[in-house]
Amino acid sequence: MKEVLLLKYGELILKGANKNVFENTMLRDIRRKVAPFGSFEVSKAQSTVFVEPTDELADIDGALTACLKIFGIVSICRAAVCEKNMDTILATVKDYIPEYLRGCRSFKADARRSDKSFPYKSPQISAEVGGAVLSCVPGIKVDVNKPDIVVMVEIREKAAYVHAGKFKGAGGMPAGSSGRGLLLLSGGIDSPVAGYMMAKRGVEIEALHFESFPYTSERAREKVLELARILADYTSGIKVHIISLTHIQEELKNNCEEDYFTLLLRRYMMHLADRVAKQYNCRALITGESLAQVASQTMQAIAVTDNASSIPVFRPAIGLDKEEIIQTARKIGTFDTSILPFEDCCTVFTPRHPRTKPELDKVLEQENKLNFKELADEAFATMYTVDIKPE
Ligand code: ATP
Ligand code: MG
Fold this sequence. Notes:
Layout: E1 3-9, H1 19-34, E2 40-45, E3 48-53, H2 60-67, E4 73-82, H3 86-96, E5 106-113, H4 122-136, E6 141-142, E7 149-155, E8 160-164, E9 167-168, E10 179-184, H5 190-200, E11 203-211, H6 218-232, E12 238-244, H7 246-255, H8 261-279, E13 284-286, H9 299-306, E14 313-314, H10 322-332, H11 335-338, H12 360-367, H13 372-380, E15 384-388
Parallel strand pairs: 5-6, 5-7, 10-11, 10-13, 11-12, 13-14
Antiparallel strand pairs: 1-3, 1-4, 2-3, 4-8, 4-9, 7-8, 12-15
Helix pairs in contact: 3-4, 5-10, 7-8, 8-9, 8-13
Bound molecules: adenosine-5'-triphosphate and magnesium ion.
């Protein structure tokens, strides 16, 4: 029996004139993601994407797993395809559906007829399908209000599709449909989650990591690259730019008041990120900050760091509790890597009493003790890039 995947759109349905652009962006993403699993034809019709194997060798389980990471898709059905003829449909139901109903006590049969030339109306199809299920699955009951599972027949233009149950899709907007953003990626828990959240809203992610060798190690950098690799599975690969802050940090330590170290460092980060963003056509910066989580994430501190960037800074985790961020980190598979105990440049020379309510003029007074531009130029010149391809 031939099986296909039916991918159902989310918010995309609401798009007016540009719907096509969004759809095509998503189709490209789907084609690229299923390609490693064999030969598939990917097409769209009526707010559904069809992923059909074109030969016996295609691995539909693998393609399904890959499709679960496609932004813009809210649900995925694995379906049997058959001819649009009632006898064939009922035979397919009896043959294909029992396996999906194992462990279920109740079901509801449903039908959708987008091909209006099909001679049975939806309620008639549902009734026939319900009868077929009852005849071949012993002990199962019909429950139209709260069924354990819905058995569905869709009569579409090309064929009929029979399925039961559905997988939750990744949601959001198609990868890259919102433009490009620069993620400030540390080795922590929060920034990979922030990157995922913005990628989910259609942002193509480019990453920037700051290191401070020899205060931070080779293994700390490897950990960040591994996080980028996990994120790259959701995006179309990620470029990770790496900049060294070693000299800036040493200069800060030698010339500025300790209480301001973190804030000054974060201003350098934002300034450098702003420059990288311009070079790589990113229209926003993305960070993993969450309000009040640490001293540098108070409203006043955020105002001081924002001031060092000329483009918008997106902080999708700003209103999330740590526990909520962790939940997402587990879901997307970054948590175990994030908690590996390596140092970050933010933890080098940390002040004992960081300012939590900094005033910009006081911060600038400290900043002016250094030659800001020269140090920033020097750091910018250390940048190198690691290009991470999706697995
Ligand atoms: P995370 O868990 O993401 O490291 P955090 O709670 O440890 O965040 P901070 O260390 O204050 O918070 O960092 C706040 C944000 O600044 C991070 O979420 C990240 O976006 C950015 N950031 C921090 N350190 C680095 C770094 N070494 N390279 C790039 N960006 C960084
Ligand atoms: Mg951190």
